[in-house]
């Protein structure tokens, strides 16, 4: 695939501060905690849980794999499909095996990496995507009102903040937490006609997450809810080459048999709730943008630029930046407190 670099972050203030530096001897990590939206095979390895492709709950690579490739970082993925924020709040298991929650993932990471180098603490990027399964575990009560929404949102947010604080205390300087996606727009929720019921639940929890995480040093909340809404805009769907944004590609019957559609890359959703390949690709590119420029506005125009830059609308499992390769040169940004990889000077965009 030919990657079009001419439009990437074109003429933005970000590139006014770019200075290319010699490669550093060490390489920074993209550390990922989360659930099935981020899992690259951890739950499949732990519990033998069925997935759609190589341990992933999608038909191709997932967002953080693209982000790591674009930024030239090592990927340290500790996300588990089925994970909740904390098993004491929302227990999760598969085949009678407890799924490590966000709390468990953080504790295990810190135990395995008790003394990160100063370089890694300054340069590693921690990304967290969690909370969707907490809703699914309590969905009936949240919708009927037998579970108090505000209390549940506060408990969930406090749990996420507490474990994120552990990462801050360990010295990590760059932590990003994705809020909950627009679950109300997924095929599963649409099939039940429950969008109007889910939307305020997600909004309340996202508000609680923002409030709980705001005081933490070096922690940013990223808007996955907005990104999903942007991805569903007609112009973005057209650019992505997505022809079906409401139905799942993979459908599982009551006996557990999975029937696949003929054109998964042209679907927005792999199944009732997980994104398919091209939405994951876009998400990964957006995450890379926000790593470079936390103040970047992710709207339809920005999404269209990124789709064109990486030819996402023509991508497939075998034709993307991971399968085809890509640049990994480092550069420093005066707007950031850390060094992250970027494109070579020859690949920087020209103003038009």
Automatic annotation (TrEMBL):
Organism of origin: Coemansia aciculifera
Keywords: Hydrolase, Signal
Domain of life: Eukaryota
GO MF: hydrolase activity, acting on ester bonds
Name of a matching Pfam family: Lipase_GDSL
The keyword Signal appears for this protein: yes
Name of the protein in its database record: Uncharacterized protein
Signal peptide: 1-21
